[in-house]
Amino acid sequence: MSTSRPFAIEEITVALGENVINIAQDLPSFAPAIEKTGIRVVHETSGSAADLAVKAVSEMRTKRPEQIDNLGALILVSQSHSMYLPSMAFEVQDRCKLPNEILAIDLNQGCSGFVQSLQFAVSLVGDFKNILIVCADNYRSKLDKSDRSTNAVFSDAATATLVSDRNALEIIGNCHFSDGSGRALLFQSIGKSQNDGFLHMSGSDVWMFTKRIVYNQIMQTLQKSNVLPSEVGDFYLHQASDLVLKDLKKKLGPDANVPVEMKLIGNTVSSTIPILLEHRIAKLSQQISVFSGFGVGLSASSLVIRPTMDLG
Question: Considering the entire predicted model, what is its pTM?
Fold first, then answer.
């Protein structure tokens, strides 16, 4: 029996970096990576992560003005802060003219960030009614332009996900994994103390981490939920690369439905799962779904979500 509060994902809005980069045409020396990543286009912004966040929130206000005017909390997920303090949540609150009477917090997390922030939001939704999860990163500003392992993968993007207390969905299982001993596999130092201040990613080691941890975590979460893999409608997995997703799908079985939306978008860090969900929200009320985010930390978080009403 689930002890999760009922909730709904009402709307998702997306803002991609305005500059579109075709890897084969614009970065031809990185083109060989496409076969492994499955990513042909990435997006880069000339602005900040906060600028992208403001775009996503502004679109959400256009679509859901009443709920934004009655917002109870803002959870902002980012690893692309332009200042130490105050938090980016306060900048977005001010620039988007969100209510002053809200809880505004930052979550410094990467590819697991959306799943973790949703877990937090659902625990708070009974008190705050309408909660906005904003994921925003401009990882491309962190990249060494000669580094194929990152330049052919990451995109700049922001998403805004409106979570309400409407009785529609529930979390029936969750598992989390945190291993700081692997932090050197994907990191960016403050200043230029390490790797000249650029983002470092040991792609092969991070891939081995996903092979070792993620599938087992998903299966553990399903077991805790008393759900069989065959009962899952969609597995919404972090869009790390084609190599990673194909490996996970193979383990999950030939009938597992694993949506992919990165070919023309890229790896948008914490925004990948919201981007998958943007046009699939209605499906959540019709089936059991799995969300799984994994990466920098090293971390992995998985949820099993089902409609609160009997599927019949």
Answer: 0.94
